[in-house]
Amino acid sequence: MNAIRNLIGKYSHYVSHNPYLMLILVVLLTLIAFGGLTQVSTKYMETRDMLPEVEVVQSYTLLENSFGTDTTLMIALEVNPAVAGSNEVRDIREVSAIRYMDTLGKMCELYPQVSSANSAASVLRQLNGGVLPKSEREIIEQTYENPLFEPYISQDYTMSIIRLTLTDIENSEDEEEIVLEIMQTVGEVPKPAGLDANVAGEIAVGPSVMALIEPDMAKTTQASFLGIIIISFLLFRSIRYGSAPLLVIGIGIVWAMGLMGLLGIDLSSETSGVISMIMGIGIDFGIQITSRYREELKNLNPNEAMEITLNNVFVPMGTTTLAALIGFRAMALGQITIFAEFAQIMSIGIATCFVVAITLVPVILVAGEGVWQKIKNRISGKIKSHKNFFK
Q1: Under 8 Å CB-to-CB from 190, ≥6 apart: which residues?
Q2: pTM of the predicted protein model
Q3: Cα–Cα dist 119/152, whole Å
Q4: Distance, CA of 35 to CA of 93 (rounded, Å)
Q5: Secondary-structure class of domain 2-38+207-379 per CATH
Q6: Which residues contact 214 (CB under 8 A, 6 or more apart)?
Q7: Which residues pair with 311 in a beta bridge?
Q8: Where are the domains of the chain?
């Protein structure tokens, strides 16, 4: 324990008396972190990405790798007339709706990733020698209580689906690409009045979820940071001292994201909220050092005050960090993948905030004290010169 105390004492003395060298080190590390930060992206995590490596999942993965897999995407058609008494579609079995369904399915089959498009229209073609019935009466007769149409038409005849079977889909980027292409096709093919068409299915949810998550994540982070700014300034009642803890979470998150980028770790739709959580935990490190430093500064010069501060807060902060790391790493012991990813990102964020707190905050406080004293002396000197001028 004495060896650890001696090591902490040497570190505290060096940081407190060499603030500008430490500042250069922090700047260099931040520049490196910015390089990794550009490599971090937000991915959509599918259900199978969260599954543990149990026997049934391993077997499923083996089958995928050996024989390939089919992924299903759906286009949902819904009757939605806007004007009462108009000639808009009111029954999904109307000729215009079936023809639209057939056209849309054929357009989708032009994509190499779509192996087949199955719908009520394709079933009708099979029953009629490859052609569609010409009248609504024929369609109603063939679909009435016919089990072949149950997978495609709702019981109240207001909805229908087109099932697209996809192949050669190897990753989430391929899924997103084909989903966007199908969405574009749905938007381009003219549809009958009173009929809505939307792309559905698990892989179609990904781009939509990500489109919602990214702005929401930005809003959450901004709201969290704003709340922390208010609390920090109210606590210290000083812009100078209130800004120091904010640097911990600001630079700490940059370092965390940069390290994640260098390690190849991406955020997912499920872990995107960790930034706000890291901010909430990391701000405590900056507050502890700043508060203790202000107390010691009442009786000591800036360098000595910071040395005493680090000597006294290093062990409690280090213990808190270690306990948090153990707690989050324990989450990774489970078999659910999402918990392990969450724990990994939180561990990186807390560790970087701690390192920033014991390196950058002492530098800012000690160097800032010297700059502040120079400013005060310059202002007081000008005031005295003005007083002497008017005597």
Answers
A1: 100
A2: 0.63
A3: 6
A4: 57
A5: mainly alpha
A6: 42
A7: none
A8: 2-38+207-379, 69-200
